[in-house]
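Researcher: Re-running this chain for the archive, since the previous output was lost when a drive failed. Same request as before.
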Amino acid sequence: MAQARPLAIVTGASTGIGYDLALLCAENGFDLVVAADEPGIATAAEALRSLGAQVEAVEADLATLDGVDQLYAAAHRLGRPVDALLANAGRGLGAGFLDQDFARARHVVDTNVTGTIYLIHRIGTDMRARGEGRILITGSIAGFMPGAFQAVYNGTKAFIDSFSWALRNELKDTGVTVTCLMPGPTQTDFFARADMTDTPVGRQQKDDAAMVARAGFDAMMAGEGQVVAGWKNKAQALMAHVTPAGTLAEMHRKMAEPDGGDR
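Model: Regenerated structure tokens:
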């Protein structure tokens, strides 16, 4: 009997880093459950199937507990253990915090934090019981900087970066590894969706999503604790550890403040 292919869940997989992570999984022998909150996930799944992978597509709002439960149920119906969870779904939002629509700001928190850790809790519990599994969480170097004009997003990524290391330590003797991928600005739909195309960071040259995904996938497979994608981002991350918070906030303001300055 042929050995079953391992199974990976990839969230935020319709475009960008998430799609490229799913692509790498398919190319490296994984079957997939891919999820996103948009119809494009079906198109992405069809492309991934062309690589020979079995792919289940789930369109669900992973900012909600119900959406996460929907994804978990879809994976459970396959009757196979989840060997790798690539928790990549995330949202951004630009502009000054008091100028943001609070419902949109909360959606960033619910997607990046609440939905992410709930999914990890559900899948991670199964992995620990089985004594094996890999978890890749997409954090960000933004988590190292107070994010003036991107305050909620950076705050969520500070949480995720810290959470990843804590969870890794808790699971160090269980056979389950936790890896945090920390990209810098990447060429995806992120900045358009976050209403940040009128900012210096929105206009600047960005890292290639496939390169970022490769760094994360390789680190996950090697069981590493973290990876910062790109040498410029590595330098920025190192600098953030020795620079006063007020200085970092002012630096971030210069990158993320919309054209036209203060209201």
